[in-house]
Amino acid sequence: MARILAVDDSASMRQIVSLALKGAGYEVVMASDGDEALAFARREAVDLVITDVNMPNMDGISLVRELRRLANYRLTPLLMLTTESSPEKKQEGKLAGATGWVVKPFNPERLLATVAKVLG
Amino acid sequence: MSTTEQQVASLLAAAVSQLELALRESQGPADQLGAAIASISAGVDANMSKLELKREVSQCIEALQFYDRMTQHLSHIQNFISGMTAAIDSAMRGEEDQMAWDQLRVRLRQRLISDPQRELLDLLVAPTQGHPAASRAAQERHADPGSIELF
Fold this sequence. Notes:
The complex is a heterodimer of chains A (about 120) and B (about 150). Chain A is α/β, with parallel strands linked by helices and about 120 residues long. Chain A contains 5 helices and 5 strands.
């Protein structure tokens, strides 16, 4: 089963995302901000990254930009999971290389359907 | 009441209303979470089917996100009040700047995460006429909570 990196500075959100994904059989690894996620990505590959936008140290959009620079993350699906919903922010994410934009609070079934779709 | 005092009064009223809305918006999900947990508890005793159990857990997952949403909303209101403090400080030093007040309003509006939050702010603190940033923000269409878009 696919391995997913979940990035959010909120411990409760990391638990919630992990619960939703593990329930569907995915392996989940977690990071609490962009810095931690990028350090992990430099060592190991995953099949999908789901990241919040507003985080300390390194925000989600910067993380996406940095991940796209890594050879083994150029084609990895990168989903933003965030309360941010403005068109400008979405466009920023898209230009940085995000695969999709999920506005919190997410519906678990819809998220899982999207995850399945981007994982092909 | 001076223009500055009126602006401060309306922005304070807006902050108070946003706090009330934050509390109100979290009540529904908290109740939903309680009901789902109660259902699971009863269902475990009554040998609830796996499918029904999964459905209730899914409800819990969705409702539990209210905490994250509420803390973000409160954080935006906190930043807004800090911005107001700075603007009042400037006004008291005679450095009144109408654009600063409008920008404060626009900044808060951009960070709000639901239509009810934005509509409430617009009701209490209307954008200054002819201010392009304020009217753009007023017309901005935000994605609905729970929406998913693949690029």
